[in-house]
Predict the structure.
Amino acid sequence: MYMKKIKWGIIGCGDVTEVKSGPAFNKIEKSELVAVMRRNAELAEDYAKRHNVNKWYSDADKLINDPDVNAVYIATPPDSHAFYTLKAAKAGKPVYVEKPMARNYEECLTMIETCRKFNVPLFVAYYRRRLPLFMKVKELIENNAVGKIQFVNIRLHVPQKASDYVNVKPWRVIPDISGGGHFVDLASHQLDYLDYILGPIVSVKSVVKNIDKLYSAEDYVSALFEFENGVLGSGLWTFTADDNDRQDIIEISGSKGKIIFSTFNQSPIKVFTQHGEEIFNEEFPPNIQMPLIQTVVNELLGIGICPSDGISASRTSRIMDLILMK
């Protein structure tokens, strides 16, 4: 059954929802943010008033069961993604959940199975699948700009964060909450995007280390992988890099050239072929999740398809589990 208007409720109206996603729900036609929830009632009320939302809760069950809410956006840390998805699905309400989809592949499967049982759509916020910069890279590959794709190399070198040194660690480096460390938080975007443009990864070999021991999660990951179509890949993710060695590069090599671009910086796309270098500039939108949220709304209205669902997102979680040797 398609909807006439999507009335959203947010569970976990924290930082990610301030600009990246929250405002987009009211900017899209036939979409409205009607309620928000946070365990701290004062913070939930503050968010609601600043974003002109009529209802706020400190109890997720009350938001999920609010008759004015007919779709739920889960923006909590990953340890509660499955918990809230199951509740929303049982209430018959479509789910849009933050990335990574869950702490591990097993939790993803539970989410998929439950949503299928209750005939509820499940979407995941891998928003690079609809950002103009990444759509342009996809277009270049599909148009054979660098020939047949042969190899992919990822380099993400990030210095330690100040928060890594504090006694009470941020949730992103607590595996019981996040599923891993900064690798899970950041590499998930890269691996999901490569799944989108090149297809599923089918085999992995990796080395995983905790070098600086600032927290219990991994801080160094090296991996070799192969896609279903035979394209080979490699990646090096380090979160102990020197300031002078910051890198955010994906290099896609084909039989006639290569494409270089960044995942997290608005650097231009560079295409190198026998004809020389070509540069493409694509800016990120103010609300970076809005293009993907538009596809979620379109699918719920029955006028389109969202490219990031539970099935595709679960593949990324599976590959991360394999890389981290869980």
